[in-house]
Write a structure and sequence with these properties.
two-stranded parallel ribbon; single chain; alpha/beta; ten-stranded mixed β-sheet; 10 helices; 346 residues
Length: 346
């Protein structure tokens, strides 16, 4: 997609019905879309019925552990507990600008992250975005704004400062104004596959590709210092031979979402902005039951993770230098083979 025009470009890797299937029939394009989406849903159901829930292990585990203050000190195949993450990372690293500490080490963290004083959370009404927003809001010390499509509706469930932000409808200029004076941006937007099953492909392209790229351009124009993008494991699955894996097939059946997300990821990596791309496994609403496992990019093709943990990693990534310009794949390590990935909602 060309960043300056934000035109809807053709989606990649679509397997279409024969060209003559709709020849000489009225409303061909409508029937084409309906049949295409129906074929994908049928394929998804067939796949889910035929696969074991513990079908695939991650192909490689290049994990990270927590040391005294950092989330991203490297240590192969090491994981951390929920308690350790809060005590060491969430306090000392992710919100070092928020909570003062008397130790010299904590003071270094505060100084290193002093540039992040205001944060916008795009998609603050989403299941993951709302968690990020609430955690930042309750921590205090930084200015946090929730970017939402409908401020009046969102204000009924969210406290604090809300601002209109719609990556599809807003112009680049509008988005830039929304991000003015923001030091950090956490992008937790994603299309809703259940909203209109007949427009899944179009919606994924508008939100996860074109709209997200437009928001990245706005961040750059507004002078945002750090961008954290919530994406998905297997987003780059085609590049490492995972296009036929159950997780890729099941997830990409919903509007080719993975193919759209990778375009925004690549754009962010080339933008010149300081970024961290978070690729979680299947997203769970319940609290975490396993240890956090942080892995290198293009290593996981299955696994699940609590949205609470995703939110914590997003916040930590705002200030931890070890997360700078990195792609992190995260799941929970529950001591059993991870379940087949299938999760979209941000």
């Amino acid at each position: 997609c060309h960043a300056s025009s934000y035109q809807l470009t053709p989606r990649r890797h679509l397997i279409l019905p024969p060209k003559n299937l709709f020849k000489n029939r009225p409303n061909n394009h409508i029937k084409h879309n309906i049949i295409l989406d129906t074929m994908k849903v049928i394929s998804l159901i067939t796949l889910m019925l035929s696969q074991s829930t513990n079908a695939f292990l991650p192909s490689q585990q290049t994990a990270f552990r927590l040391d005294n203050t950092h989330l991203f000190s490297s240590s192969v195949n090491d994981v951390v507990s929920r308690r350790d993450m809060f005590q060491k990372t969430f306090v000392a690293t992710s919100v070092a600008t928020l909570l003062p500490f008397s130790t010299a080490q904590a003071e270094e963290e505060v100084e290193a992250s002093a540039g992040i004083k205001s944060v916008v959370v795009a998609g603050a009404t989403g299941q993951t975005g709302s968690r990020v927003y609430a955690k930042l809001l309750s921590s205090g010390g930084v200015s946090v704004t929730g970017g939402v499509r409908n401020v009046d509706k969102a204000s009924k469930s969210l406290k604090g400062t809300l601002s209109h932000l719609d990556v599809v409808e807003d112009s680049l200029e509008d988005l830039t104004k929304t991000l003015q004076n923001a030091d950090g941006l956490i992008i937790a937007v994603g299309f809703n596959p259940g909203k209109n099953i007949l427009r899944m492909a179009a919606a994924a392209h508008e939100v996860d590709n074109v709209g997200t790229i437009k928001l990245i351009d706005a961040a750059k124009a507004a002078g945002v210092k750090k961008v954290v993008l919530v994406s998905s494991i297997l987003t780059n699955g085609r590049a490492w031979g995972q296009e036929k894996s159950p997780g890729f097939v099941a997830t990409n059946a919903f509007g080719n979402a993975l193919d759209e997300k990778i375009e925004a990821e690549l754009y962010l990596r080339k933008s010149g902005l300081d970024y961290t791309i978070i690729r979680p496994g299947g997203l769970k609403a319940k609290p975490p039951t396993g240890a956090l496992s942080v892995n290198a990019e293009d290593t996981l093709n299955s696994g699940e993770i609590s949205r609470d943990l995703v939110a914590d990693v997003c916040i930590a990534s705002l200030t931890d230098k070890k997360a700078s310009n990195k792609v992190l794949e995260i799941i929970e390590d529950e001591g059993v083979p991870p379940k087949v990935f299938n999760g979209l909602n941000m």
